[in-house]
Amino acid sequence: MLACHLTSAILSLFIFAQLAVPASATRSDGRSGLSCSHMWKVVPSPNGVHEGGNNLGGVSFVSAKDGWAVGDFGLPEGTVHTLTEHWDGSAWTVVPSPDGPSGNGDLEAVSAVATDDVWAVGHAGLATLAMRWDGSAWEIVPTPSPGGASFLADVAAFSATDVWAVGYTQSGTNATLVEHWDGSTWTVVPSPNRGSSALLAIAATSPTDVWAVGDFLGARPFARSRSTGTAPRGPSSTARTWGAVTTTSRECPRRRRATSGRSARAIPEPRPSCCIGMGSDERVNVPSGGTLSAVSAISPTAAWAVGGTWPGYAPSSMRWNGTIWRAVSTPDPGDAAGLADVEALGPANVWGVGLHAGGDRTLIEHFC
């Protein structure tokens, strides 16, 4: 199986990384209520209460008619607030979501276990932020925030009593942060570091084979950690161990800041795209001229990756057929738009979310 992941950190870093197929709830391969013609289409998506500074960074589906996208929106005075949107099979709608105690909130990722069990993570100011959808409302669930500042970048939910979140802390230097939900409490699980390190994404093949990826300052090679062994439920679940895994070194592309109005968005500089083969750690060539932001693998012969291409930065997507990656025409709404995350419910039922960086508006596209 092949998988790759190029994710943006809160530190405005881009990395190449490998992700396994998520092992959360079984995904439906049914079609949504939209008409299908085997091509990408822009699907109308709402913004927050202010038509500016809107961004979607994560997407997850329970079924073809039950999906979530999360991100943030900004207000003119400079505050940032959580943004959650729900797909009911016919339209995306904004669902009210709380901010952290600081009055700010930014959601980076979402993972759906069931219709009444969805997790979203990010940060509120300089503290971690996690919230849970119970079928009727979002509720903040307390999470540890060690160090001077703590951020959660991704989440993988397996059941109501087994959820992992990863990120990093800042206290002089960066350090990896891994937290686990056992059904009652979030706890920090020790994780290795290699210099100033950050974990930016997580995926798994099973609850006992969990992979987290990120980078460390310096040469910034690929970095991976994994959870091994089984553990009983409850507090003893923190006995699970994480070990560093040696990976191929490759320098990360840098990012520049692009300012639009009162908000600033990080825009990746041009760099050829690449993926990494999970079995042999080999580089697999893909069409170049942009960046890859996320990947969703369905099987060894079916996977999708999304991101943006240059010049001008426009949404892009690629499809893996088991032999080669091929670029797939992706609608460009203009305004320096790009896709940040992708969820493939089936080989021809794929969702991508992101933003119009120039217009500060949400962007959702659907392939079917």
Lay out the secondary structure.
Layout: E1 2-3, E2 5-8, E3 14-17, E4 40-42, E5 55-63, E6 66-74, E7 80-87, E8 92-95, E9 106-114, E10 117-124, E11 127-133, E12 138-140, E13 149-159, E14 162-171, E15 173-181, E16 186-188, E17 197-206, E18 209-216, E19 223-228, E20 241-245, E21 255-260, E22 263-268, E23 274-277, E24 283-285, E25 290-299, E26 302-309, E27 314-320, E28 325-328, E29 337-346, E30 349-356, E31 361-367
Antiparallel strand pairs: 1-23, 2-3, 4-31, 5-6, 6-7, 7-8, 9-10, 10-11, 11-12, 13-14, 14-15, 15-16, 17-18, 18-19, 19-20, 21-22, 23-24, 25-26, 26-27, 27-28, 29-30, 30-31
Characterise the protein shown here:
The chain is mainly beta and 368 residues long. The protein has one domain (2-367): 7 Propeller (Methylamine Dehydrogenase, Chain H), CATH 2.130.10.10. Helix content is 0%, strand content 56%. It has a 4-stranded antiparallel sheet, with no helix packed on it. Strand 29 (337-346) and strand 30 form a beta hairpin. It is globular. 47% of the residues are buried.
Question: Could you list some keywords that capture this structure?
Answer:
Methylamine Dehydrogenase, Chain H, about 375 residues, 4-stranded antiparallel β-sheet, mainly beta, 31 strands, globular
How would a crystallographer describe the biggest sheet?
A: 4 strands, antiparallel
CATH superfamily: YVTN repeat-like/Quinoprotein amine dehydrogenase
Give me the CATH architecture, please. Answer: 7 Propeller
Main β-sheet, spatial strand arrangement: 4-31-30-29
- The average pLDDT value, as a whole number, equals 77
Radius of gyration: 19 Å
CATH class: Mainly Beta
Proportion of residues in extended strands: over 45%
Overall tally of structural domains: 1
Distance between the termini: 23 Å
Helix content: under 10%
Low-confidence stretches: 1-31, 219-240, 246-281
Q: How many H/I helices?
A: 0
